[in-house]
Amino acid sequence: MDHGAKIAGKTRTDFMLDAACEKAEELLLDRTLFVVDTERFERFQQLLDAPVNRDAFDRLMSRKAPWD
Predict the structure, then answer these.
(1) What is the pLDDT of residues 31-56, one digit of tens each?
(2) What is the distance between the alpha carbons of residues 68 and 63, in angstroms, rounded to a whole number?
(3) CA 39 from centroid of its chain's CA atoms
(4) From what superkingdom does this record's organism come (predicted)?
(5) Which residue intervals of 1-68 are DSSP H helices?
């Protein structure tokens, strides 16, 4: 682990945090079913139905995806 951190130019802590985040992202991206309560689902539907903020959308689409 220390060798990997050194090669990456990171501290051991940063290296381990990055590895943990990558694993969490991988796990979430592999999920196909998300269970939420009624309140959160209704909020989700409201967000889907809301008009698109074009500036925010353009900023989002210009960001690099975490898996790239």
Answers:
(1) 888 889 999 999 999 999 999 999 99
(2) 10
(3) 22
(4) Bacteria
(5) 2-8, 12-29, 38-49, 54-62
